[in-house]
UniProtKB/TrEMBL annotation, chain A:
This is glutathione transferase. It comes from Aegilops tauschii subsp. strangulata. It is an enzyme of class 2 (transferase). GO terms for cellular component: cytoplasm. Its EC number is 2.5.1.18.
UniProtKB/TrEMBL annotation, chain B:
Its EC number is 2.5.1.18. It catalyses: RX + glutathione = an S-substituted glutathione + a halide anion + H(+). Is involved in the conjugation of reduced glutathione to a wide number of exogenous and endogenous hydrophobic electrophiles. Residues 5-84 form the GST N-terminal domain. Residues 91-228 form the GST C-terminal domain. PROSITE patterns: GST_CTER, GST_NTER. Belongs to the GST superfamily. Tau family. It comes from Aegilops tauschii subsp. strangulata (Goatgrass). GO terms for biological process: glutathione metabolic process; toxin catabolic process. GO terms for molecular function: glutathione transferase activity. This is Glutathione S-transferase. One of its GO terms (cellular component) is cytosol. InterPro entries: Glutathione-S-Trfase_C-like, Glutathione-S-Trfase_C_sf, Glutathione_S-Trfase, Glutathione_S-Trfase_N, GST_C_Tau, Omega/Tau-like, Thioredoxin-like_sf. It is found in: Cytoplasm, Cytosol.
Length: 226, 233
């Protein structure tokens, strides 16, 4: 009999980075124990599992911790290479493109979004919105390039870039209320708009993403530190 | 006989990200054409190949560009998997650890370098220098964890994490030259100090890393550029 394969995910319900990991685990059909963390009162488990950053998500696989959402996504794909669908493409060039876009999302989308959300002054907020929309426009192009007319960045099925962007979806859907602007619209980002509909309809999305209304309320009351 | 690959690398000799990619190519023994870029006057080829970021390094393989040094290094490792030593380890958990620390280095070390070089006041500079000391302290621990008593992060010979950290040693030498601060010293970071010496003696480092004075020249040019930009604001 094979030994127990134990997966534990330390997370917070609102975190988009945690949502990414939940998405990947669901897409792979993997069962895991989810342990909600209190970031204002960090548990010993969190502090010992992620001593460098002390952040969520942390995936603990048979007692060994893996930190940073994109590192965890690649780990899940590699450690469970024969389980469920592949998250990254098989072709090395397509893998490189996927990795590029995931890094782009992490480096370029989040910061202006945060500025747009937390800015005190009108000028700063407008600048944040402008930068965020420029990034979204670039991602529209990325979707066109990567999908080649298919439903997802990953082609016929959900892939690494879909998960990386998808994890942020509840925040993206709450952007109009939180930042004062819609990130996607039919005129500028028709492909992304259609992608959002498809992605949110997935079973994995329904389980992994927080409720948008609940998230918006929470973000407003806490000026959320993501 | 295998044909020579159609492989070009657009780079800038003192960029740690370019050095990293050149080391990866060296590890795999892959021949390529290296094209030095002028980042103050970007070429058409660079702008076409890296339209989103407009940055180096860019690896162009059979006419198709690959951008972002971690993506490029993994691409090289995957395409030339059958040639030379592996760059990333084989085990998924060890790969995750290597990727974690590579991300840490990229998120913390290079920004601390830029912050130190760009600092407008002594106070700001001291803050950035302290940040760099914290990063090196963390990497000392990482080395202890990853090396398992061996010579390199990856074990007996260099791997992904060695080149990810090692490509930044030049920048630390620049800061030493310009500000007299020693970031890799036998007192505070003995393991890293010993590793840095060994790393500097590898073929990859010897082939690819330019002299510190070249890097200092570039840093000064960059500082002048920032100062001019700040003045016109």
């Amino acid at each position: 009999m094979a030994g127990e394969d134990e997966l534990k995910l330390l997370g917070t319900w609102a975190s988009p980075w945690v949502s990414r990991v939940k998405l990947a685990l669901h897409l792979k059909g993997l069962s895991y124990e989810y342990v909600e963390q209190d970031l204002d009162n960090k548990s010993d488990l969190l502090l010992t599992s992620n001593p460098v950053h002390k952040k969520v998500p942390v995936l603990i696989h048979n007692g060994k911790p893996i930190c940073e959402s994109v590192v965890i996504l690649e780990y899940i794909d590699e450690a469970y290479g024969t389980t469920g669908p592949s998250l990254l493409p098989t072709d090395p060039y397509e893998r490189a493109i996927a990795r590029f876009w995931v890094d782009y999302i992490d480096q370029k989308l989040v910061i202006p979004w945060k500025v747009a959300f937390t800015a005190d002054g009108e000028e700063e907020k407008t600048e944040g919105i402008k930068q965020m929309l420029a990034v979204v426009q670039t991602l529209e192009g990325a979707l066109k390039e990567c999908s080649k007319g298919k439903p997802f960045f990953g082609g016929d099925s959900v892939g690494y870039v879909d998960i990386a962007l998808g994890g942020l979806l509840a925040f993206l859907q709450g952007t109009e209320e939180l930042c004062g602007t819609k990130p996607f619209d039919i005129a500028n980002t028709p492909l992304l708009l259609a992608w959002v509909e498809r992605f949110t309809a997935l079973d994995a999305a329904k389980v992994a993403l927080p409720d948008v209304t609940k998230l918006v309320e929470f973000a407003k009351t806490k000026r959320l530190r993501i | 006989m295998a044909a020579k690959p159609d492989l070009k690398l657009l780079g800038m000799s003192v960029s740690p990200f370019v050095i990293r990619v050149r080391m990866a190519l060296h590890m795999k023994g892959v021949s390529h054409e290296y094209i030095e870029q002028d980042l103050f006057n970007k070429s058409e080829l660079l702008l076409e190949s890296s339209p989103v970021e407009k940055k180096v390094p860019v690896l162009i393989h059979d006419g198709k560009p690959v951008c972002d040094s971690p993506a490029i290094v993994q691409y090289i490792d995957e395409v030339w998997a059958a040639t030379g030593p592996p760059i990333l380890p084989a085990d998924p958990y060890e790969r995750a650890v290597a990727r974690f620390w590579t991300a840490y280095v990229d998120d913390k070390l290079f920004p601390a370098y830029v912050g130190t070089a760009k600092a407008a006041t002594e106070e700001e500079r001291t803050q950035q220098i302290n940040e760099m000391f914290a990063v090196m302290g963390q990497l000392e621990e990482a080395f202890a964890q990853c090396s398992n008593g061996k010579a390199f992060f990856a074990g007996d010979s260099i791997g992904n994490l060695d080149i990810a950290v090692g490509c930044n040693l030049l920048l630390l030498e620049v800061l030493r030259s310009m500000y007299g601060v020693e970031f890799v010293d036998t007192g505070r970071t003995p393991l890293l100090a010993a590793w840095a010496k060994r790393f500097g003696e590898t073929d990859a480092a010897r082939e690819v890393v330019p002299d510190v004075h070249v890097a200092v020249e570039y840093a000064k040019k960059r500082q002048a550029y920032w100062a001019a930009a700040a003045a016109t604001k």
